[in-house]
Amino acid sequence: MKTAAFGPGDPVVPVDYRLSSYAYHLPEDRIAQQPADRRDASRLMVLDRATGQARERRFAELPDLLPPGALLVANNSRVVPARLFGAKPSGGRVEFLLLTPPPLLAAEPGDDGSWTARADGLLRASKAPKKGDTVEFGPDLRLTVEEKGEFGQARVRLTWRGALTAILERQGHLPLPPYIRRPDSPADAERYQTVYADPAKAGSAAAPTAGLHFTPELRARLADRGFQWAEVTLYVGYGTFSPVRCADVRQHRMHAEYVEIGQETAAAVARAKASGRPVVAVGTTSARTLEGAFAATGGIGPYAGWTDIYLLPGSPFNVVDTLLTNFHLPESSLLIMVSALAGRESVLGAYGKALAAGFRFFSYGDAMLIR
After folding, report:
1. Residue 206 in contact with residue 241, Cβ under 8 Å?
2. Angstrom distance (rounded) from CA 244 to CA 89
3. CATH number of the domain within which 150 lies
4. Would residue 342 count as lying in a domain?
5. Rounded to an integer, what distance in angstroms lies between the CA atom of residue 233 and that of residue 310?
6. pLDDT of residue 151
7. Cα–Cα distance between 292 and 319 in angstroms, integer?
8. Considering the entire predicted model, what is its pTM?
9. Phi, psi of 140 (to 5 degrees)
10. Which of 247, 265, 244 has the alpha carbon at shortest distance from 330?
11. Phi and psi, residue 218, nearest 5°
């Protein structure tokens, strides 16, 4: 592994651990602002881990490109309309993004028929609310700031009447990423969800975007070709939003996210590994779920709990053999993770080829298959 110094007097740091090694130039017009006309009409960059060669295909060709006998493992979490707009008593406008998955809120009943629960989120306002301040989101929901953190993070106490999920559906907005520079629209309510998102797993603050390319027809074609399908749950939270701010990426710490692997999925993964069939993670969230559970337990089995696994060059991949993913932000933990699987130079080379070929990047953009 090559090494380079940060500057005079700084320690020598391997190139693969320098944050600047994961920078690349991305023209603004390559950031997809809208989804493709059809989910499976996206383009697909196929990267061969053994050779580093990348070639252009179409996502609809996926059944022809997967390793024989592969098991696909997808994240079935559903995005909640967790972006709320409210006001302080002074009238100042406040934006709040709920990061704690609603299914994990420890709600307590109040004497007046209301419910309360502590939650984590991101606050944004021209004048940030202070500890103890309240924010109203209509007659049925408010928050009180309990702790303030860095970069807009806050621990709050939510108070509501009725069903919180119904309030969010009525008043909330889908939390489109900030690089999509438009308000969410009614079309996003369908396209910013995977077709297999489970309503019982509604708790993510962002979509597991690699899965957005699948259609029911494509899934049927995969099944006809003998590919198996299994599902896990990772409630996407602040780990997706939090940028890497450390010049040496080894110093970055991931925020924990809650994951679930059921008995049926664990058995399917165990059978695939035992028989030498490749496990394909549909998205980085599925990969983090599988590898995080393995790291926590030392094996493959049912699991429910938190993971803060951080996969970077040198990290072992004990479960995942193949990764289906989108293109990720420069200097992000997700780009670092993909590089841990396929090699930084190969990944950035494929990114360069994708840029030259006019691929669309990020959540509503095109995809990459690393095999």
Report:
1. yes
2. 35
3. 2.40.10.240
4. yes
5. 18
6. 86
7. 10
8. 0.94
9. -110, 0
10. 244
11. -65, -40
Q: What is the pLDDT of residue 336?
A: 98
Alpha-carbon gap, residue 303 to 322, rounded angstroms: 21
Are 324 and 287 spatial neighbours (Cβ–Cβ below 8 Å)?
no
What is d(CA 121, CA 143) in angstroms, rounded to the nearest whole number?
A: 11
Q: How many residues does the chain have?
A: 371
- Whole-number average pLDDT of the chain: 95
Neighbour-count burial of 326, counting CB atoms closer than 10 A to its CB (0-12 exposed, 13-18 middle, 19+ buried): buried
> Up-side HSE of residue 305: CA atoms within 13 Å toward CB?
14
The tens digit of pLDDT for each residue in 108-162 reads: 999 899 999 999 999 999 888 999 999 999 999 999 999 999 888 999 999 999 9
Domain that holds residue 265: 3-78+188-370
Tell me which residue has tokens 């500057």: 7
Helix H, strand E, coil C: the string for 127-187 is CCCCCCCEEECCCCEEEEEEEECHHHEEEEEEEECCCHHHHHHHHCECCCCCCCCCCCCCC
Q: CATH no. for residue 233?
A: 3.40.1780.10
User: Which pLDDT tens digit goes with each residue over 167-198?
Assistant: 999 999 999 999 999 999 999 999 999 999 99
Contact 61, 44 (CB under 8 A): yes
**Residue 298 and residue 157 in one domain:** no
- Confidence band of 6 (pLDDT split at 50, 70, 90): low
Q: Report the alpha-carbon distance of residue 221 to residue 237 in Å, rounded.
A: 32
pLDDT digits over 247-257, tens only? 999 999 999 99
The tokens for 10 are 């700084």
Q: Could you tell me if residue 181 is inside a domain? A: no
Could you give the angle at the alpha carbon of 281 between the alpha carbons of 35 and 175, nearest 5°?
Answer: 40
In the 3-class helix/strand/coil scheme, how is 75-109 assigned residue by residue? ECCEECCCEEEEECCCCCEEEEEECCCHHHCCCEE
For residue 148, which amino acid is it? K
On the 0-12 / 13-18 / 19+ scale of CB atoms within 10 A, 117 is: middle
